[in-house]
């Protein structure tokens, strides 16, 4: 099932990349927080979204990508592929925006469950790009990662600095 969801995510991104209007692609680097900070030293990722302008200053769309958490000490690397609805509001007369991605994140590592994905952002709007600061959070279960006798609820989060480029 997980492989089918991954295939669907990449097929969606492939289809979106053919229609250039409203497509943005970028990346982020971040510092893990919450439960992720005890098992990961930093995170890198790619972001992709297709946005539609619904009214002046308000864009909605779909977002995906990949976030890779680099393990520290004896922990292995792990990652998530988000599939989310995305919203962005640009303030009139200012080059600032706020945004929110909300959906699910598919775990790429056995032993870590997929979970709810929330990614609020604030940023600076440039003519062909956007710079942002965001708090990425994935609510998941670790399974037998730490405690073999019970499931452990976890929040894998990161404070990210990112850039997205508009492809038209």
Tags for this model:
about 170 residues, mainly beta, Porin, 8-stranded antiparallel beta barrel, about 10% helix, about 65% strand, elongated, disordered N terminus, OMP/PagP_B-barrel, Outer membrane protein beta-barrel domain-containing protein, signal
Summarize the structure.
This protein has one helix spanning 2-18; strands at 23-34, 40-55, 58-71, 78-90, 96-107, 115-125, 129-141, 153-167.
Set down the secondary structure blueprint.
Layout lengths: L1 H17 L4 E12 L5 E16 L2 E14 L6 E13 L5 E12 L7 E11 L3 E13 L11 E15 L1
Descriptive account of the structure:
This is Outer membrane protein beta-barrel domain-containing protein. InterPro entries: OMP/PagP_B-barrel. Keywords: Signal. It comes from Chryseobacterium luquanense. The protein is mainly beta. The chain has one domain: Porin (Beta Barrel), CATH 2.40.160. The protein contains one helix and eight strands. It has an eight-stranded antiparallel β-barrel with strand order 1-2-3-4-5-6-7-8. Strand 5 and strand 6 form a beta hairpin. It is elongated and about 50 Å long. The N terminus is likely disordered.
Give the biggest sheet. Answer: 8 strands, antiparallel, barrel
- What would you report as the Rg, rounded to the nearest angstrom? 16 Å
Order of helices and strands: HEEEEEEEE
Report, as a whole number of angstroms, the end-to-end distance. 34 Å
Shape: elongated
From the 3D coordinates, which CATH architecture would you assign? Beta Barrel
CATH topology: Porin
Q: Can you give the mean pLDDT? A: 84
Number of domains: 1
Q: Please give the oligomerization state of what you see.
A: single chain
List the strand order in the largest sheet.
1-2-3-4-5-6-7-8
Number of helices: 1
Question: Quick one: CATH class?
Answer: Mainly Beta
Helix content: 10-25%
Q: Structural class, from secondary structure content?
A: mainly beta
InterPro entries: OMP/PagP_B-barrel
Protein name: Outer membrane protein beta-barrel domain-containing protein
Signal peptide: 1-19
Keywords: Signal
């Amino acid at each position: 099932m997980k492989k089918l969801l991954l295939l669907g995510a990449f097929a969606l991104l492939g289809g979106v990349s053919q229609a250039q209007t409203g497509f943005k692609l970028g990346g982020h680097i971040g510092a893990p927080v919450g439960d992720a900070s005890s098992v990961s030293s930093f995170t890198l990722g790619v972001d992709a979204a297709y946005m539609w302008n619904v009214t002046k200053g308000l864009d909605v769309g779909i977002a995906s990508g990949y976030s890779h958490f680099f393990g520290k000490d004896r922990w292995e690397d792990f990652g998530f592929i988000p599939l989310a609805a995305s919203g962005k509001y640009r303030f009139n007369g200012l080059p600032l925006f706020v945004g929110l991605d909300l959906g699910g994140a598919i775990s790429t590592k056995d032993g870590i469950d997929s979970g709810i994905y929330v990614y609020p952002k604030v940023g600076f709007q440039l003519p062909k790009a956007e710079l942002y600061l965001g708090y990425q959070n994935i609510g998941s279960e670790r399974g037998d990662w730490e405690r073999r006798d019970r499931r452990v609820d976890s929040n894998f989060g990161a404070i990210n600095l990112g850039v997205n480029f508009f492809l038209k």
